[in-house]
Automatic annotation (TrEMBL):
InterPro entries: Mediator_complex_subunit_1 (IPR051999), Mediator_Med1 (IPR019680). This is Mediator of RNA polymerase II transcription subunit 1. It is found in: Nucleus. Residues 46-409 form the Mediator complex subunit Med1 domain. GO terms for cellular component: mediator complex. Component of the Mediator complex, a coactivator involved in the regulated transcription of nearly all RNA polymerase II-dependent genes. Mediator functions as a bridge to convey information from gene-specific regulatory proteins to the basal RNA polymerase II transcription machinery. Mediator is recruited to promoters by direct interactions with regulatory proteins and serves as a scaffold for the assembly of a functional preinitiation complex with RNA polymerase II and the general transcription factors. GO terms for biological process: cellular response to thyroid hormone stimulus; positive regulation of transcription by RNA polymerase II. It comes from Eptatretus burgeri.
Amino acid sequence: MTQLYTLMEKLRAKHNQPKPWADIMKTVRQSLERRAGADGSQRLSRCLETLQKALKVTSPSAMVSQLETIAQEHGLSSHYNSTNYECYITSDMFYMMIQADCAGTICDIKVAHHGENPVSCPDLTNILRVGDFSKFSHHLEALASLYTLPGDSDMKNKMYLALQSLEMDLLRMSQLYRMTTNGSTLDCILHGNTGHLTARCGEYLTTLKIYVSPSDLIDETCGSTLSLTDDNVPRSLGLNVTVAVEGVNGLYRLPIVPLVMGNHAADEQGTPPFAAISTANSVELPACFVLRCQIPIPVSESTLQRISAITGITVPVIAENSSMLGLIQQSVLGKVNESVRFGRYHVLNLPGQQHCYFLNTVSLLHNNKEFHGSLIAKVPFVHPSHVPTILALLRQQLVFNTLLGSCIRGQPLSWTNQLSNRIQFEVSPVTDCSFTFSFQHPKQDSLLSVLVEISNQGQLSGKLFTSPVDGPICGDDYISRILQRCVSLPVTMRALYKKAETAPVCPVRPSNTAETRRALAALASNLSATLEELHKAHAPPTPEVPHCAILPSVDMYAQDCGGASLAEDAALLLRAGISNLIARLLFAKNTIWDL
């Protein structure tokens, strides 16, 4: 006892002595960097697991060993019934039954969620039959993630009840939309309140297919267009979001019974009436519903703000406050999580034409600042009525991304002399749902501009702005039809450029300067009102901008240029909202026309 007391006193005396701060930091750093060495049994176990995965399954026992290893990796339990050649993978909220024959061949796989009957899973059965255990493990991980929820079993049961009630409401909303609008399968995908809904079955969560581009509908093998029916919608087609419930830090009141009332929609869009939230049909839980995106989506700042205003929950982002066009470029190139140099110039070769697109990152209605956005992978919400509005905003953003992404192909290029031989187009964002593209008239020294707008329902419209001296080229309906049909800027530009090449030419410019100035003043007044309306509708709340800051005076450009002819093109550029091109036009005023 005395020896132990003496030893403790020595230890106290040793550690009571103050140490230099540098020594303390060194000790802490060494402790953090120290790794626990794996003993021989752990290394041997990992080697055995690697060998087991590499071995070919030729017997029921080998199949069971593989399944037990996969279940253990995901924290699930497993047991084997040798009498019926059945292997069970279980958790608190679901179980999977794998049936095999005496030779180890998989006969059927069934999944039963909490309180539900087992459902056969043909896809999982085929995966195990070919021995693709890696893919099977991925499906099992996705299935287990559905129940990665906080709390005890009672809390998880309530969260699962909330998910079930949401799924039933979404299914009813989908049925009411089809009954009210009598829309086709493609119409349901592009405009439906829930998109094309595929109910949860086995290993698949409830899936909403919300957008399909025209290029997705082209069968590359034969070049024909896919014909979609309710029974023929490939899961891999277009963009999907899955419906799930996730644990969060705060408390939200989630419905635990279906809220859709009656058998008739409340409006022409098939929106149903909902029961009011009360303590009888809802419960407070540390969770919320989420729409998980198939791939991360670039979304503008204003769209994020509108979604958060609807749901009352901040949307989590992956990449925040980045260049919107840069995010779209990463998405198009399939390098969302990689650092990709943003290129302003992109070259495309089309039949009979070679295009060069200059991407302007500055938005006129965002105080001439860079157009910013974020990447999102999921959208949280708490009520089924939020889903139609969320999907409408996501579709609008997806159409915007698809259009701008259509002129971003391959690696970005810097300006070279080789690009000067191509048709030059400038693309400039105006708002998060509109932008302009401009190019030189193929027969005259003037600029043509097109304003593209995307409605709340994802409908596209284009308006062509020409100089008063240019002859008629085509109607706005023609541009809108092409945009809606192909959702591609290069295809639309190719058709419009060909129209301009065959359009009649006005050889004589108007000589009445006073009359031209009056016409330009009227055009500028209309444009000023349009820009101010767009600014109020889409710009974030800021102090009121003076009128001259939004739209400079056309007369000023006319005086600086020394004539009305150049001012006509300045007004044209103002109508398109491209101030940087106006500067270039003024800089080259002595070389364009002999005024």
